[in-house]
Amino acid sequence: HKGPALDVVDDEEKTVVRLMLEEGRARAPRERSGWFELPLVLRLTGVRGYEREWKSVLEVLSGTSGLSSTSAGMLDVALTAIGGTSEPKKLTPTPALDPGVRSDLGLKRIFSALFQIVLLNEGGVRVSLDTEFLHDFRVAVRRTRSLLGQVPGVFPEPVVDHFCEEFAWLGQVSGPTRDLDVFLLELDGLTRGQAEADIAPLREFLRLRQEEAHAELLAALDSSRYSDLCTAWRRFLDETVLPEPPHPNAALPLVEVAAVRIRRLHERVIERGEAIREDSPARKLHRLRLDCKKLRYLLDATKTLFDEKESRITISALKRLQDNLGDFNDCCVQSERLRDFAFSMTAEGRAPVGTLLTMGRLIERTARRAKRLRATFAERLEEYASPKNAKHFRRLLRRRGGKKPR
Predict the structure, then answer these.
(1) Which end of the chain has fewer CB atoms at under 10 Å, N or C?
(2) Structure confidence at residue 13 (pLDDT)
(3) Within 13 A of 329's CA, how many CA atoms are on the CB side?
(4) Treating both helix axes as pointing N-terminal to C-terminal, what angle do 196-221 and 353-384 enclose, rounded to 10 degrees?
């Protein structure tokens, strides 16, 4: 709760600093009770051009008995009280692995690192503190599902199929919230030069949809399916691997098994990319984008097993192709969703004429950008498939001996 503001003025009655007293209480997201009373916070807000006056007031208050200065806001104070943080947790999804690590052990270490990212970002996802919480949560989920299916012959197929299905479900239920997060984040840039009065109804429509999607996501996170997934996945990760596993690639070095798959994905990206023509449907570029993602996830997850320099060069070249495909896909999706939003807003009586006209202009602008991106695709593919990059790729995948993975 915020109290009335107090203005500090100079000799000319101009406001130079504003003071506001804030108080409140907080509780953990899953708790029904257990409220924590928060300490009173006296917020100092400076006015542009009066930084010296702001520092003077701060010095006076800092010297007052019983007061201490902090840069934390009320949100940080609340989260500290319940044992949380306002910053998305940044952990590496790429643990350092010994070059000779077995495939089953190496993959479990990678999966454990990704699972920690999921769990550490879940609280932020629940209370919707920052869009980066959900972004990191979803990337860890997608990487997990992709890697499960990318390295065959390591774990039992029924186990892989089950967890692939469950992580796919988790990706699906968290998708709508993330899509609306991104749309709202990009709305200002997308609508630059448009009248705010025409944009406001769209912004409000998206905000309400985002709240609905977040409520559905919370229901999924509170479901037995999600808790069962976390329990089963943790149990699987903690299981001791067998000295002589029955699965053909489990005891082989992960670097060898990964190298085979990386080479195949790399060849598939080039083959499918070169088959795309100017008149090819957008779905072919979308399928290529997914292939690039699979390759990127595998390269990222196992990069500590390969030469650091060659890994960095290869991933950088792939990223440039990915950026082109990803931006093109985003334009296609944005156009489709703007049309869907226009129909829904019209049906709900929330679409003034000015807003619909503006949305039409946005669709045209997005379509023009998609056309420009499509025109540069061949250049990005040629760069990725170039002899120079091929040389770096061969250096990356120099074999280290051992049995050939099956």
Answers:
(1) N
(2) 64
(3) 15
(4) 70
Of the candidates 157, 142, 156, the residue with the CA atom closest to the CA atom of residue 111: 142
Using an 8 Å Cβ cutoff, are 334 and 366 in contact? yes
- 385 and 379 Cβ atoms separated by less than 8 Å: no
Distance of CA 66 to the CA centre of its chain: 42
Q: Select from 255, 287, 281 the least CA-distant residue to 269.
A: 287
Of 135, 114, 116, whose CA–CA distance to 124 is shortest?
Answer: 135
Which residue intervals of 275-307 are DSSP H helices? Answer: 282-302
pLDDT of residue 174: 97
CB 345 within 8 A of CB 200: no
Using CA atoms, how far apart are residues 154 and 246, in angstroms rounded to an integer? 9
Give the global pTM: 0.76
pLDDT at 272: 96
Question: Listing from the earlier edge strand, what are the strands of the sheet with 2-9?
Answer: 2-9, 15-22, 41-46
C-alpha span between 82 and 348 (Å, rounded): 40
Contact criterion met (CB below 8 Å) for 241 and 254: no
DSSP state of 202: H
CA gap 49, 52 in Å, rounded: 8
Residue 162 sits at the vertex; the CA angle it makes with 92 and 174, to the nearest 5 degrees, is 55
Residue ranges of the alpha helices (H) in 63-130? 74-81, 103-127
- Distance (Å, rounded) from C-alpha 163 to C-alpha 90? 24
Ranges of the chain whose pLDDT falls below 70 = 1-5, 12-14, 26-36, 47-50, 65-66, 68, 70-93, 399-406
> Strand 15-22 vs strand 41-46: parallel, antiparallel, or unpaired?
antiparallel
Q: What is the pLDDT of residue 126?
A: 92
pLDDT at 34: 57
* pLDDT tens column, 151-197: 899 999 999 999 999 999 999 999 999 999 988 888 878 888 888 89
- Quote the CA–CA distance of 185 and 179 in Å, as a whole number: 10
Query: Is residue 325 a contact partner of residue 292, using CB atoms and an 8 Å limit?
Result: yes
- pLDDT given for residue 404 in this prediction: 45
Tokens of 186: 């990009």
Amino acid 200 reads A
